[in-house]
Amino acid sequence: MSTRYHADALHKFASDLFASTGLSRERADVMANTFLQADLMGFTTHGLHRVASNLQWLKDGVSRLDGEPEVLQDRGNCFNWDANFLPGPWVLNQAIGQALDRVSEYGVVTATIRRSQHIACLAAYLPQIIEKNCVALLTCSTPAERTVSPQGSKEPLFSANPIAFCAPAGDFPLLFDISMSVTAGGYVARAEREGKKLPAAYLKDSDGNLSDDPAAFANGGSILPVGGADHGYKGAALSAMLEVLSMGLSGYGRADNTQDDDEANSVFLQIIDPRAFGAPQDFLRQTRALATLWGDCAPDSDATGGVRVPGQRAWALRQDQLAHGVRLYPTIEEDLKVLAVQHDRDMPAPITDQE
């Protein structure tokens, strides 16, 4: 059984690391909370795992320590910012705050951000939106990245292009965060680090042959789009749509010189207030019914975990870990201990059996 840590202690530890670079405490707290929220819901490849890379970007000046995003367009119900490499978790939280402040007036608020430093786990931004009883659609793309190959090609073109969605639905929200690739790059990197094969042939090698070996990707291969080898044209079409929403509407992407942008993102955000369309209880009655009917579907004969309703497991895990402590993925715990030594910080004390 892995060690548990108090969520507050992990938050303070990560915030202290970010603040040690000269980043303001307010911004450090926002970043730390974003990464923690991911691990609370089980999105372990893009949570506290990303502290090390974000810390290095701040130290090297790749991420800006201060300054504000440039407002390129603002019509009230929609706006476009140029983040100019501000820390992604901080700048996206600022945009969400703006959208939530405006949505009661406009009903629907849409925002785009160009040149935001990597925003990590999209699901991590959703709890604050659920708490306001709103619906959200969030996606991002990475202009400098080509890791996912279109159907019928061995050459990568798209980035992983995740999309996240949330809607209030009663006891738990409908909530998901999925990429438009069969598997996320974070899982490929984790498998390579642990010396494991992928569960199936999710990759192509540089010659276009299907593979389950992470080395195929590391050596110039690509990840298959959603739909896999047979129906990947569907995932490729969705990838194109998400790049239009994020890169196209923000005005920065494939048409530009992005080779030095590394993991910086183009972002699309839309927040919807159901009250703009009718009585909130009518909306909740429909979403609650959908979630209930979904969960009550008869499971397959070989199903081990029952029917999976998106959001149910993540929300329950979040509540449990807030109450009883966070169980870190083993390699994340290892990496945080290394950062503690490197930065002369005390690793948070684990929760004891007596607590």
From TrEMBL:
SUPFAM superfamilies listed in its UniProt record: L-sulfolactate dehydrogenase-like
Family annotation (InterPro entries): Mal/L-sulf/L-lact_DH-like_ah (IPR043144), Mal/L-sulf/L-lact_DH-like_NADP (IPR043143), Mal/L-sulfo/L-lacto_DH-like_sf (IPR036111), Malate/L-lactate_DH-like (IPR003767)
Keyword tags: Oxidoreductase
Pfam families from the UniProt entry: Ldh_2 (PF02615)
Keyword check for Oxidoreductase: yes
Transmembrane annotation, as ranges: none
Gene3D superfamilies: 1.10.1530.10, Hypothetical oxidoreductase yiak, domain 2
Family designation: Belongs to the LDH2/MDH2 oxidoreductase family.
Protein's recorded name: Ldh family oxidoreductase
Organism: Microbulbifer salipaludis
